[in-house]
């Protein structure tokens, strides 16, 4: 069973791509086999479907994407992918339809988070945070409120070990100060002690 990677894509669409997507979305606002349908990929004759999917989509299986159509042809996609984000599929989608898009992803089991963008000319950028930088990535992408949400999910007895994973150089006094700052949502102290800047 894979670890699931959570993905979000915001697309500045055009009428052609919006029309295509509306033709394949189901009554629950989902598109099953999203990349196969939008990129018109056919791996059925490929004996090595696994490597074909990795090469063409960027992950083992295609995804079921939830689709939200916004005003001005903006489209939001939300889906889980196995093990890793489908970067190859996202890039192919942007290039094929000349779309500008932004994306972010998180795989909490292996503790990495990232974001990127691709413009209509195919120029792209991507940043990933993992290991000790995992919480910093959350802070950069989602803000300090999200850090409090994560810390609220940690049992009080496990907080020390959790924080040590990301800031192992904290003294006992600094850890006590951090606990107090988390409890009172003192942003500047939390940001400083967890090295989120």
Keywords:
single chain; 197 residues; alpha+beta; Alpha-Beta Plaits; seven-stranded antiparallel sheet; 9 helices; 7 strands; 25% strand
Describe this entry's structure for a reader.
This protein has about 200 residues and is α+β, with helices and mostly antiparallel strands. The protein is about 40% helix and about 25% strand. The protein has two domains: about 5-135, Api92-like domains (Alpha-Beta Plaits, 2-Layer Sandwich); about 145-195, no CATH class. It has helices at about 15-25, 35-40, 50-55, 85-95, 135-140, 145-150, 160-165, 170-185, 185-195, and strands at about 5-10, 30, 65-70, 75-80, 100-105, 110-120, 125-130. Strand 5 and strand 6 form a beta hairpin. The protein starts with a strand and ends with a helix. The mean pLDDT is about 90.
Ordered list of secondary-structure elements with their pairings:
Layout: E1 4-12, H1 15-24, E2 30-32, H2 34-39, H3 49-56, E3 64-69, E4 74-82, H4 87-97, E5 100-107, E6 112-118, E7 124-130, H5 134-142, H6 144-152, H7 159-166, H8 172-183, H9 187-193
Helix pairs in contact: 5-6, 8-9
């Amino acid at each position: 069973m894979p670890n699931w990677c959570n993905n979000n894509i915001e697309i500045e669409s055009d009428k052609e791509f919006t029309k295509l997507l509306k033709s394949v979305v189901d009554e629950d606002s989902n598109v099953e086999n999203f990349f196969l349908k939008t990129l018109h990929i056919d791996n059925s004759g490929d004996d090595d479907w696994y490597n074909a999917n990795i090469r063409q989509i960027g992950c083992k299986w295609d995804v079921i994407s939830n689709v939200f159509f916004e005003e001005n042809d903006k489209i939001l996609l939300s889906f889980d992918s196995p093990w890793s984000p489908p970067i190859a599929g996202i890039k192919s989608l942007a290039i094929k339809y000349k779309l500008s898009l932004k994306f972010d992803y998180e795989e909490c089991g292996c503790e990495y988070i990232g974001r990127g963008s691709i413009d209509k000319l195919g120029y792209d950028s991507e940043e990933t945070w993992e290991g000790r930088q995992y919480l910093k990535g959350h802070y950069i992408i989602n803000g300090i409120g999200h850090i409090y949400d994560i810390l609220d999910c940690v049992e009080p007895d496990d907080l020390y070990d959790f924080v040590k994973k990301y800031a192992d150089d904290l003294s006992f006094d600094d850890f006590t100060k951090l606990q107090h700052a988390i409890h009172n949502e003192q942003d500047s102290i939390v940001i400083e002690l967890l090295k989120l800047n």
